[in-house]
Amino acid sequence: MVNVVLTVPDHVKNEIGLFPWVNWSEVAREEVLRKEIFERYLKTGRLTDEDWEFCEKIDWHPVDELPLKDEFVKRLKETEKGRFVKVESLNEVFED
């Protein structure tokens, strides 16, 4: 495995220091893998078994990074214009 050294501004170093329990090497490693998997997914539309295992581990999928389709955004906006009923509590929702 290769070691990588990153240069960050002082304010970032200070913020990192506030979270000593975080394994920053693991955070960086996961982000690099996510980027690699995402780019491969964009090219092939598929994930390898190893990719799936990693995605399951971090509860992420490359499709999460894709922009919403225009038709879906349009349907969401139409739904926002629909009729809504204001309730004061959950009990009102489940009353007979």
Top keywords for this entry?
96 residues, 0% strand, extended
Structure summary:
The protein is mostly helical.
Question: How would you characterize this protein structure?
Answer:
The chain has five helices and no strands. The protein is mostly helical. The chain has one domain. The model has no long low-confidence stretch (mean pLDDT 91).
Number of domains: 1
List the total number of helices.
5
Residue share in helices? 55-70%
What's the overall average pLDDT, rounded?
91
Tell how many strands the DSSP assignment holds. 0
Low-pLDDT regions: none
Outline, from the CA principal axes? extended
Query: End-to-end span in angstroms?
Result: 63 Å
Strand content: under 5%
Q: Roughly how many Å is the radius of gyration?
A: 21 Å
- What structural category do the secondary elements indicate? mainly alpha
So what's the oligomer here? single chain
Largest sheet descriptor: none
- What order do the SSEs take from the amino end to the carboxyl end, as H and E? HHHHH
Topology (elements, then pairings):
Elements: H1 10-17, H2 24-44, H3 49-58, H4 70-80, H5 90-93
